[in-house]
Write a structure and sequence with these properties.
Helices cover 36% and strands 30% of the residues. By secondary structure, it is of the alpha+beta class.
Length: 160
């Protein structure tokens, strides 16, 4: 059977939920109303998901079978899937994809470029600047001590 098109699914940290040791799920956010993913799943429920963590250059492929769960059939699941570490996502969601995991594969990192999120970059810059701020403060204290020592020595020379 031919493979279906690749469909990107993304969201905030925590948008993919682990329901049990062999089941994950995610909310299906509104898109372009073409229903490509749901249409493909009607014909073939096999899925392969790629999860890539660019900063650590780690990738895992998950293989399984997807089930579409409509909001009307399980509103509690939809609400659970809209809840992420930052709070409840403010987005319409009519269905969820529940993936029954059959296998997974950790891939080599050779061809994964290193990328960092804006949040990670801000934190790195804050830490780098904090280290420099401490160094600048130490140098300012040392400069003041040296200026005082020079003044003391000049006073001694002027007294003799």
């Amino acid at each position: 059977m031919p493979a279906g098109p690749l469909q990107h699914r993304g969201g905030p940290t925590g948008f993919v939920h682990v329901l049990d040791p062999s089941t994950i799920a995610l909310a299906d956010f509104p898109g372009n109303k073409q229903f490509v993913t749901t249409g493909n799943l009607d014909a073939n429920d096999r899925v392969a998901l790629f999860f890539i963590d660019y900063p650590t250059r780690a990738r895992i492929k998950i293989y399984g079978r997807a089930e579409i769960v409509e909001r009307t059939d399980n509103p509690e699941l939809i609400q659970r899937l809209l809840t992420v570490p930052g709070g409840v996502m403010d987005v319409a969601c009519e269905r969820a994809f529940v993936i029954h995991v059959e296998a997974f594969n950790l891939n080599c990192s050779r061809n994964i470029p290193t990328k960092y999120s804006a949040e990670r970059m801000r934190e790195s810059l804050r830490l780098a600047r904090a280290a420099r701020a401490d160094e600048i403060e130490e140098l300012q204290v040392r400069n003041k001590e040296m200026a005082e020592e020079i003044a003391r020595l000049r006073a001694l020379v002027g007294e003799s």
